[in-house]
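Spend some time on the protein that follows and explain the fold to me:
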Amino acid sequence: MVYPATTNLTISAQFLYRAYLSCHALQARKPQLLNALQCSEAELRDPGYQLRDDSIASLCAAARGELNRTDIHSAIGQQLVPQGFSDLGFAAFFQPNFGEALIQLVTEQGLGGEQPVVKLMPLSSGDRLVWNDDRQVSSDLVHVVFALIYYCGEALAERRFRTVKAVHFAHPRPEGFRGFGEGDSKREPIFCHFNRPSTYLEYHRSAMTKPLPRYNPAIVSATGSQKAAFARGRFERENLAKLTYQYLLYLLDKSGLSLDAAALTFGMAERTLRRKLVAEGISYRQLLEQVRRDTCHLYFLEGTRNLSEIAAKLGYSELSAFTRAYTSWYGHPPSQDTGTATALAA
């Protein structure tokens, strides 16, 4: 599924896939959502696709109709907050300060191609995170992205400091829109202003420079190296191994890890995918093992999850299967390295 060239901002299929899963987690039915998007789950899983931004408007409209709730943008944004290394932007949680984390978080969402969609504007009264793209853009996308940024910011701050002071939008108020943080007794409601000259999140003074409690230079280094490996070559069909690695990375704790699911996404027969990968020097099974081992390393560096949770995050249905895999990688069971980040080689 490839949309024609347009002057509109584009979004990655992976971002839309996570938004789609978020709607389903809110109890919207998958067939109705896919019908609105006019595509299949397999197509949404392809990391090589870019879609028009108005696809998020179709998704929001379908979810709003399914769930009969007017706060759909805020609800989707809250569901989109990354929970692990298979979610877009989770590596940002380990940056040294709040501002760097927010910029990386948005960058990793796959919005707008090479051009950043937000920029930081420092002001003495409080910094602004400004929508920085002058291309046509769906207001639904802006609302979902700003909700994601807001709720991620709250998670990053861990209630140690105040984050967003107000939100400003250049477009009119959507019907029924209630803002961010409404109805949550643990959060202060955030005022939203509409028909303003520009679109931005207004932060409390010095928020952007606040250090983050989860700062982990080892994770920053490891995920930076992983990102650099992706950047050395675009994910074209001619580099199927890299494309498959990225495909598997973002699906480890979701669905679609089987060879037939990947072949369906890439629009080829199973044996064709297998043959093409072998021609590039690696098998599908080896790629899956590599992705799991690389991601396992990150979870051990994080050092906050038990083995059962790590196993589930790596796509293992049982802890025993993870234990066998780990032992084959390192020669001893994972329990021997629990809580020891330095035990795993990069």
User: Anything to note?
Assistant: Confidence is low (pLDDT under 50) at residues 1-6, 341-346. The chain is about 45% helix and 10% strand. The first helix runs from residue 13 to 25. The CA atoms of residues 94 and 217 lie 7 Å apart.
